[in-house]
Specification:
Helix content: 40-55%
Shape: globular
Radius of gyration: 25 Å
Bound molecules: adenosine-5'-diphosphate, zinc ion
Largest sheet: 7 strands, parallel
């Protein structure tokens, strides 16, 4: 790294050194190479374009989807003396900003994607010196991603108009499929991807079925005296829970997008300043909040995705001290999620279903939670982390290898083209018009699963998908993946938590 870069890091930003992959990303950007940086929240993505923006001539254009976040970033950039501005519908100094941009007097200009792709703005870009395109929350460009925004698709033609201006895409949350899609959509070469480590070793993960949410959350609050966030799915739910947690004697507040902005601001400020407050919030809370000493995060229901879970739990323990993450889930969460998937555009349903299955595998595993999370983000973790509920207290598990083999055989015998539901029917011997027409009732796998094994079918199917022993094709049909062989040959085993009796039927229902 050239001394001038380290100099700028120290003098402008006041940091003694780069953290993690920051140095690699900055080096690529300064060399003019197109780059995708996948870095978890808090890893310091902003620096990777802010530092080049002060070192390079011209303006770095930052595309960012959330105006509220842009203003936070603007304040932070200006605080260290970077010449920055935002150009959004919420700004009344747009003429002044445009003049500064034209004059080359801005290091950073933040815009929303819809503005970036407008004709007027495109013309403006041709008249101003550009140093870099930084595309924040780049997973928004992928239909496969969990937060697709059609406006992001309009960026490519804009970028391609300036082929010599380097581009840096940034995201905190992207599975392998989404990452490949981002590279493709934004014209970044495959060797231009830099992925930071995702592990947060000081966070202890706990996941349990829901019994009485209020009581379970009150117990978490009692066990954890430090500040914490409880994520609740509905706005009304945050206020109800805040109300009932008053009895814990802790300061409690609620936060959701429906609250008066002044109250929202006040509650957020109180939380940041407090050492023991419990914030009952929707997922609207947390982005852009700098509070390193959050000691616990609890989910009172299923998060939207593994990405969401990782991001929300990641708000705990930023200071590196021990922190805990609790999740309480119910089969009805899965039913609701499935219903929501049914309502999204058909092109996006498969991705959503795969994501829901991954979440199912995370909550149902008898194995290490961290291992599942990290594998989801493309890492190759140890089988045991020693700092999650299942590693610390291994649950009663049942060997599901036989059921897994039966499942794989049924997928194979029916021609690797049917979905989970149909394969289950075949294994359970549930006769339908379809199974008769297909002649599947004569197969050796017809009706070979019964009794206790039946409750394991759905969790096993999910586990097989997660291990890449099965893959879903574009129509949801299951086919063998590279992980199938080891199971069929007896070289690998599969163990699952024994569903508690009372929960058994409902859990068996929790599928995607
Ligand atoms: P992200 O966008 O990846 O979530 P931010 O860019 O907001 O992360 O940075 C998270 C925090 O880390 C900020 O408080 C930032 O000032 C700090 N930070 C970034 N880079 C460094 C560094 N090299 N050394 C120390 N602190 C850093
Ligand atoms: Zn573990």
């Amino acid at each position: 790294m050239p001394p001038a870069v380290l100099d700028a890091l120290r003098t402008t930003f006041g940091f003694p050194a780069f953290r993690g992959v920051q140095a690699d990303v900055v080096a690529r950007v300064l060399a003019g190479e197109r780059t995708l940086a996948v870095m978890p929240t808090g890893a310091g993505k902003s620096l990777t374009y802010q530092l080049p923006s002060v070192m390079l001539d011209g303006t770095c254009l930052v595309v960012s989807p959330l105006i509220a976040l842009m203003h936070d970033q603007l304040r932070a950039a200006e605080a260290v003396g970077i010449r920055a501005a935002t150009l959004t519908s919420a700004d009344d100094n747009r003429d002044e900003t445009i003049a500064r941009f034209r004059a080359g007097a801005l290091d950073l200009l933040y815009v929303a994607p819809e503005r970036a792709s407008s004709e007027g703005f495109r013309n403006l870009l041709g008249q101003a010196p550009l140093s870099l395109f930084a595309i924040d929350e780049a997973h928004c460009v992928s239909e496969w991603g969990h937060d697709f925004r059609p406006d992001y698709r309009l960026l490519r033609p804009l970028l391609d108009r300036f082929p010599d201006v380097p581009r840096l895409a940034l995201t905190a949350t992207a599975d392998a499929h989404t990452r490949a899609d981002i590279l493709e959509q934004l014209g970044i070469p495959h060797d231009g991807m830099i992925v930071a480590g995702f592990d947060r070793p000081n966070i202890r993960y706990h996941i349990a079925p829901r019994a009485s949410t209020t009581q379970q959350i009150a117990d978490v609050v009692a066990d954890n005296p430090g500040a914490g966030i409880v994520y609740v799915q509905s706005r009304a739910g945050t206020e109800r829970l805040a109300e009932s947690l008053q009895k814990t004697g802790r300061p409690v507040r609620a936060y959701h997008a429906g609250l008066d902005p002044a109250i929202r601001r006040a509650n957020q400020a109180a939380f940041v300043a407090s050492e023991d407050m419990v914030m009952c919030a929707t997922v609207a809370f947390g982005m852009g909040i700098d509070k390193p000493d959050v000691r616990f995060v609890a989910h009172a229901g299923l998060p939207k995705s593994i990405e969401g879970y990782y991001q929300e739990t990641g708000r705990a323990g930023r200071d590196g001290d021990p922190a805990v993450a609790h999740l309480f889930w119910g089969a009805d969460d899965f039913a609701k999620a499935r219903q929501r998937i049914g309502e999204v555009e058909p092109a996006r349903q498969l991705g959503e279903r795969v994501r829901l299955n991954a979440l199912g595998a995370l909550v149902e595993t008898a194995g290490c939670r961290r291992a599942i999370l990290l594998r989801h983000f493309g890492e190759n973790p140890a089988d045991q982390c020693g700092n999650c509920d299942n590693c610390l207290n291994p649950p009663a598990a049942t060997d599901a290898t036989q059921v897994a083999r039966k499942f794989l055989s049924a997928v194979f015998r029916t021609g690797q083209m049917f979905g989970t539901g149909y394969v289950e029917q075949v294994l359970l011997g549930q006769s339908t018009e379809r199974s008769m027409t297909n002649g599947h009732e004569n197969l050796s796998v017809w009706g070979i699963v019964e009794g206790e094994e039946a409750a394991l079918l759905k969790p096993v199917a999910r586990a097989l998908l997660l291990r890449d022993a099965l893959r879903a094709n574009a129509h949801g049909g299951l086919e063998f993946g590279p992980g199938a062989r080891a199971l069929l040959k007896g070289e690998a085993t599969l163990s699952m938590i024994v569903p508690p009796k009372r929960e058994r039927r409902r859990r068996g229902d929790a599928s995607g």
